[in-house]
Amino acid sequence: MKFKFFILTFIISINIYATTIKEIKFDGLVHISDAVALRILDMRDTEELDYDKLDYALKKFYKQSYFEDIYADFTDGVLTISFKEKPLISKVEIKGYKEDDDDAQKSLLQIKRGSIYDVKRINSAKKRIIDALASEGKIDSVVEVETKYLKSGSAQVTFIVNEGENIIIEKMRFEGVNGLDPSQFNEVMANKEYMFPGFIPGFSDGKLMLDQLQYDPLRIRDFYMQYGYLDAKIDEPFVRADFNSYKATVSYQVFEGDVYRISHIILSQSKKVVETSKIHDVIKLKINEPFNIKTFREDSERVKTIIADKGYAFVQVVPDLQKNKEKLTVDVVYRIKPGKKVRIRNVIIEGNNRTLDRIIRRELFLAPGDMYNLTDLKDSKNALGRAGFFESSTIEEKRINDHQMDLIVKVKEAPTGNIQLGGGYGSFGGLLLSVAVNDRNIWGSGINVGLKLEKSERTQNYSFNIANPHLDDSDYSGNFSIYWSSYLYNDYTVNTKGISIGTGHRFTRYVTGYLGYNFSDVSYDNFDPSSIPVDSLRFFESYSKSSVTISASFDNTDDYYLPREGYAITQSLEKSGLGGEANYAKSRSTFNKYIGLEDYVNLDVIFRYKARYFIASDTGYLPLAERFYMGGLGSVRGYQAYSLSPVALDNNGAKRNIGGKQTFSNSVELSFPLVPKAKMRLVTYLDFGSIGTDSLFDDLYADADNKPLDTYTRAGYGAGIEWFSPVGPIQLMYAQPLLEQRGDRTSNFEFTIGQRF
Fold first, then answer.
1. CA atoms of 11 and 9, how far apart (whole Å)
2. Which residue among 144, 287, 316, 575 is the one 20 to 30 A from 448 at the CA level?
3. Residue ranges of the chain with pLDDT lower than 50?
4. What is the pTM of this model?
5. Nearest-5° angle of CA 339, CA 345, CA 348?
C-alpha cells in the first residue's frame, strides 16, 4: 500500500491556527458511509489535526479490504481523504478444466460474481485448482490468471488451466508379504496397478492419486486386521517415477506379524438396559476365530442399534482390544454407556411444497411422544424413499436436552406427474410409440391417477385407473381401473375390455397383501379361419373372464426409482372360472435384489438381479390371450415384445404363436454414474430367459428341420442410459440378441418413461 501525505508542516508551524481542521471530506467512498468513515477517523472539524490518529485511521481503512489505495491531503484547513476502491468482479470462470461442471467451479473458485477483487482470494483459488489436479494424479499443471478491467470499473477474471500429465502406475511391489495375496489389496487401495483395458469400468486405469498415497498404507493395514494381523505395519510408499514416460513403480515395505485369535468377548454396561445374552446374539465375532476388524466395527453398530432401539438415542459404544502377545490372543471389549432415554418432542416437515404433511407422516414410524428407536428411524428413511414422491429425503436428529429430541424431515420433491412415452424400433414392427398421462401423487394427496391413450402400429390401449395406497391414511389400500385394448400379434388381433377392483393391506413395514377381482370380455379378429386347424378354432372364439387374484409382496428397498439396497419380491395367484368361459390358474413370481457397491469400488455402482417365473394351469379353458409371451423390456431385451412363444403350424404350414404355459427370465445389471449432475447413469445388462408349454430349457436352439418347438431359450445383452429427467425416469436401451435363430423378430432399441429402474 502507498500512503501519500501532502501535509504542509512548515507552513502550519508558522501559524498554530493553520493546524485546525475546518472541514473533513471523503472522496471515492462506496462500500462504507461517511458516518462510518468519521467514526474510524476519530477526528472532527474544529479540532486540531492529529497525525498519529490520521496514520492509525488510514491503516484501519485499509484493513477493510475494500481499497486498493488511500491517501490524505490537508490544504487550507480542509482534510480530504481519497479512496481508490478495488474493482468488483463481474465474471469469473475456469477455462481448460471442469468447464461444464458448475458445482466443481464454485467449489474450486469460491469467488462469487459481485465480490471485490482480492489478490489473496485469487491465489487461493489458483492453489485449489492445482491441488485438485494433483489429487487426480496430474503433475506439471499450470494455472494462469487473466484479469480484464472493464470501462465500468469491474473486472473479469479467467483462470486458464493447462492440465499436466497423469502418472500411470506400471508396477506395484509389496515386500514382506507372505500371509496374504497382494492382489487382494486392490479391493481397498485407491492407487492401483494399471490393468488392461483400463478405460473399461472394473479395470484399473492405474492413475496415480497423490492425495491418496498417505492413506493407502492405512487401508492395507486395515485389510490385514480383517484377517487377524493386529501387529501389521506398512511403511510409507516409495514412488519411483519416470517423467519422460510418465510411468511409475510404487513400492511398499510390509511387516505382517502374527494372527491373533479371539479369546474372550466382554460386554460392560454402565447401566444394564438389555440382557447380556441378547447383545451376544447380535455379535458376529466368535471365540477362537481370527479377529476381524470389519466385523468388529459392524458388531459395534449392531450393539449400538439394539441399545438405541430401547430409547437410548445418545448411547455410546466404546470398543476396545486387549492383546496378549505371548499367546497371540485378543480380548474384545465393548463398553456401553446408554445415557438417558429419549422421546421425540416434535417431527418437523420441510421442503414439501406439494405433498401434504400427513402423506409424509404416515410413512414415518416415529411420531411426537414416541420413544426413540434407531431401527424405526432407519426404516422411516427407507419408507420415504420407497414412496416415490421425493428426489431425496433426510431425517435429522436435533437434540433438545438429555431426554428429548426433534426430528427434522427434509424432502426434495420429485416429478410424480408425467407424460409417459414408451416404444422402440424392430425389424418386424417398425416404430412403436405409446403415450400416457399419470400422476402417482396427484395434488400431493398420495393418490395415483392414470389415463392411458396408447396407439401404435400394433397396439391400442385406453384405460383409466385410480389407486390409493392408504385409504383414510390407514394400512388399507384400494384401486379401480377400466380399460379397452387391442393388440396385434403376429397373425391375429386380441381385443379386450374390462374392469378391475381390489384392496390391499400392509401387514408389516415390508409385507403387503392384495385381493382383487377382474372381469373382461375378449374377442379375436384379423385372422384367417380357413388356415386354423379345426381342433384349434375354439381358441379364437370370443370369451369372458371372471377372476380373483390374491398376492403378497415384500419390499425393503431404500428408494422407489433407483434403489441401492434391499429386496423386492412378489407372489400372486390368479384363478378364473368364477363365471365366464375362461377357466385357469396362474402363478406369477418376481424377485429383485439391489446392492450398492460404492463401499467396495469407491464408485456409485449398483448391482441388480431381477428374475420372474410365471406358470399357468389349464383347469378348463386357457385362451391364447391368457398365455405367456416373452421378449422386450421386462423379460429378454433384443427381441420384440411378446414375439417369443411356442408355435404351431397352421393349415398353410406357417408358424403361429400359441403362447406358453410357463416362462422364466432373469437379468443381471450394473448401473454406473455417467453425468451425476444431470442424474444420468449408464447401465449394462445380460438377459436370459426361456418359455415353453410343458417344460423349460429342453431346446437351447431353434427348430431343426423347420419343425415347431415347444420350448424357446433366448438371451440378450446391451447397454443403455438411465436418466431421471424433469418429466420422469427415462430408459434408453440398446440391445443385441443372443442365441438368435432364423425367423426371430429382433429389436435393437427400446425406450420408456416413467418406469422403475
1. 6
2. 575
3. 1-18, 425-430, 700-704
4. 0.67
5. 125
